Amino acid sequence: xxxxxxLFIGTxxxxxxxxxxxxxxxxxxxxxxEDKLNVVHLAEFSGIDNPTYLSVSPxxxxxxxxxxxxxxxxxxxxxxxxxxxxxxxxxxNMQPTLGSIPAHSALSRDGKHxxxxxxxxxxxxxxxxxVILGLRPDGSLTSVKASAAHRGHGPNAARQERAHAHSVTxxxxxxxxxxxxxxxxxxxxQIAADGSPRRITATPTAPGAGPRHATLHxxxxxxxxMNELDSSVTAHALDPATGTLTLIDSxxxxxxxxxxxxxxxxxxxxxxGRFLYGANRGHDSIAIFAVDQDSGRLTPLGYAPxxxxxxxNLALTPSGRHLLSANQNADRVSILRREAETxxxxxxxxxxxxxxxxxxxFAVPPAS
Length: 368
Hints:
The protein is an all-beta fold. The protein contains no helices and 28 strands. Helices cover 0% and strands 54% of the residues. A hairpin with a 4-residue loop joins strand 18 (232-239) and strand 19 (244-252). 51% of the residues are buried.
């Protein structure tokens, strides 16, 4: 099945009080035939707790999984190797993340580092928001090489009592932006040759917005943010030389009547940069926006049902023909067909039955 895509799914297999049950089995790998919508289970690894976010090497041979374990003052990130010939996942090593509730990660463009952010609950432990680990030649992780702590809070007393870093996005070589839900900031760091971060600037969002996940436009000059707490999507002009962000547009992610009961999660952009997709937990939908290629402004195109309940994470296939939604509380990953010209989504009726899916990732090799 060399022509099939490799799909990695992390599931919740250890209870946490803020999730509605843990029915997963850890980390899974599938072969995905996009033409036939045929999915074959290749491997699973249950020896990892709550792999709620994954970063995958372009060839699919390495996967890095955050372990989100409630009550621990420090989380873990694990490195695993996947051998497609033998269809086996083999653990390489794990490292502590110097903070609790590791929420997101990203592999650096140069393949030398793994960036990790800790959401953090409470003030005990190392309490670092953003950490940088090195990658050894065999794909295993070094200990944390450098870190940065965020301080402050937003106006939402229930959710913004302190800093809560929620995602990290590399926007240019050795330039990253960390979205901090707790402080309503998009913080830009320059990564030095030794892996240490230097904070360049912090861009405030609307008070109480709660920035969660972000995505970079293929042109490298537009940056889009999914704001969890006020259910909005924002578009920003990005200066890739400095990481400076300038707000262009803000649009609601759900109808007004649904905002109080909704919490936004993930955001994805089509390979051609023309359409933006944002996941809504509560409204249980995917918000669809057209992106003006010149101005970066957003035009709402409506909502598509997510094919389940509580869409925590999204993944577009490399071709952009399909979007997968990890529907956490429906125990399924739904496969939606994407219309390239209109950007609209349609449920194919095909889904992957799996307990409490939290993250879906394709191995995406560079274009030839």
